[in-house]
Amino acid sequence: MISVVTLAGGRPDHLRNVVLGLSRQTLRPAELIVAVIQDETYDLPDAPFPVRQMRISGPRLPLAQARNAAAKAAIGDKLVFLDMDCIPTPTLLADYDRCLDEMDGLLMGEVMYLPGGATEGEWRYDDFAARAVRHSDRRGPPPEGIERCADYRCFWSLNFAMRRATFLATGGFDERYSGYGGEDTDFGKLVDRAGVPIAWIKGGLAYHQYHPHHMPPVHHIDSVVRNAELFEAKWGYRTMGHWLHAFRLMGLIDDTPGRPIRILRRPDADDLTLTGQQSHQPYANTASVIRLLEERTANAQVAA
């Protein structure tokens, strides 16, 4: 049996689409558990499987805590974790079910990104396939089957699956992480240290729904800094280095090695414009922002 876990705050249309996608599965889930990280539960469409909404109290965006609570409450022997902005294709659960029978590990399915407007009205998977793109910072799936990943940093938490017993045996996500950033990288390292294989699968495809975002996530600078320091205290080095590098180039932080990270100023309107995702963009991209910032820095040095 498969229990599907999702975290939800705001964006009710996105969660509704997740329920609709799960209702079209070739393999029906035993349940959907929605870990609700807002004051009110959701008004969701009828589904051919039980839907449980669990209110999670705690600090803003208690992502680690919410995933752990939902996993512990699940009845399935297999868990599929799917972010609320990811619409599963009809074979997603069947793909994970088959692959978890073959490998007891942390398995990551495919994700394709949709531009703004793609999910309006009565959407169709064929239309998604024609418009979706792959994330440039994310490698594609293997040609077939399962392919192990040698670097725990390849783990992104938006679409993955594990056997429930294996997830619980790891201890789950470190609940000291709160807010945006770092908890998934920490979990990937924890899983790797425990000897649990991390792997991509061919299949398990979900379509990521558009919503305005920033990359690097300047709107979450406080939690990124806090969680990077927590990761360093735990493992001896910082994670989210590309975001910290961008913040430094923007003059937002001083992240001198061996010292606590200092926030020098708050993001302003120019920072938000630079990092913001536009509706025609399926996703925001840190690498392109860093290239622009490095060019600006080099040009300023030449001018000086």
Question: If you had to describe this structure to a student in words, what would you say it looks like?
Answer:
This protein is an alpha/beta fold. The protein contains ten helices and 13 strands. The strands form three sheets. Strands 3-2-1-4-9-6-10-8 form an eight-stranded mixed β-sheet, sandwiched between helices. It has a three-stranded mixed β-sheet with strand order 5-11-7. Helix 7 (221-235) crosses helix 8 and helix 8 (241-249) packs parallel to helix 10. It is globular. The model has no long low-confidence stretch (mean pLDDT 94).
Fold topology:
Layout: E1 2-8, H1 12-23, E2 31-36, E3 51-55, H2 63-73, E4 78-82, E5 86-88, H3 92-102, E6 106-108, E7 111-113, H4 125-131, E8 146-148, E9 159-163, H5 164-170, H6 183-193, E10 198-201, E11 206-208, H7 221-235, H8 241-249, E12 253-254, E13 262-263, H9 269-275, H10 286-303
Parallel strand pairs: 1-2, 1-4, 2-3, 6-10, 7-11
Antiparallel strand pairs: 4-9, 5-11, 6-9, 8-10, 12-13
Helix pairs in contact: 7-8, 8-10
Give keywords:
alpha/beta; eight-stranded mixed beta sheet; 36% helix; 304 residues; globular; single chain
